[in-house]
Write a structure and sequence with these properties.
The chain is of the alpha+beta class. The protein has three domains: 84 residues, no CATH class; 82 residues, no CATH class; 79 residues, no CATH class. The strands form two sheets. Strands 3, 4, 5, 6, 7 and 9 form a six-stranded mixed beta sheet that branches. It has a three-stranded antiparallel beta sheet with strand order 1-2-8. A hairpin with a 4-residue loop joins strand 4 and strand 5. Helix 6 runs parallel beside helix 8 and helix 7 packs across helix 9. The radius of gyration is 21 Å and the shape is globular. The N and C termini lie far apart (53 Å).
Length: 290
Amino acid sequence: MTHPTHIRRDHTGDRPLLTALQLAEQGLPVLPLREGKGPMGNCRACRNTACGGRPNMKTPGPCTCAAPCHAWAAATTDPTVLTSAAWAPAWRQAAAVAYHPGGTGLTVVDLDNAEAVAWARQNLPTTRTVATTRGEHWIYLGTMTSRNAVRPGVDIKSLMSYARWLGSGTGSMAPLPDAVRALAVKEPTAARPALSPAVSAPAGGGQCPHRSPAYLERGIAMAEQRIEEAPDGIHRTVFRMFLAVLSAHGRCGCLTETHIKRLFTAAQGRGESLRHCEDAWSNAAAALGM
């Protein structure tokens, strides 16, 4: 598969559909972005998982919607789809074009500020670089798990993710290095004490059962699934799931920032703001006297 090397950068007043078609012709799966760099909202038929799709966009699910729903999962190289009547309203609203890096064998290291760029220059192999509003995209050949906030100002966008198209950039693409892969599997840091206060092990000196990776993973995965599949009342569902996780795992000290981020990501995938997530978490902790 070839990778675009000469498609122009999007600017206000440009035609996103034309750019999308040029990118698709070169094998890059694309989708429209609304103002604010977010994907188009799901259509009425797909809202609240009515279509059976996954609103957190981990998989497209069985949804066969003709509209550009489910963010990265809608990305396509098919010009018939891109120019279809179902996509026309989205292109009329589009402020920019995004692409699915993993869908074309790429990984984007999104460096969101000058400090992150300086870190990359000291720690990562040089590769193709694209200037962004606040930093740079470093693009490597190869795919991996996408993950946000792997370090201050650094996100990884590859499989099951999208990145804004900001031009072809400069330089040759290097193979995805182990240094980038390692960022996504970095050892988790301890959770903030205010969110998951640690207490002593259960009476009798037995090992805390919540420290079993499988036990804790099931609890987090179940909470994610309940949030993702809630048919309605998402605010109430998020609070209930946060309350359940804290009730089961909040007093033994086994929750980490990674677990909390997973829950917040599931909630934000359903449209919850970061502020609502923080409030729901704080309220759940307060209800349990934490």
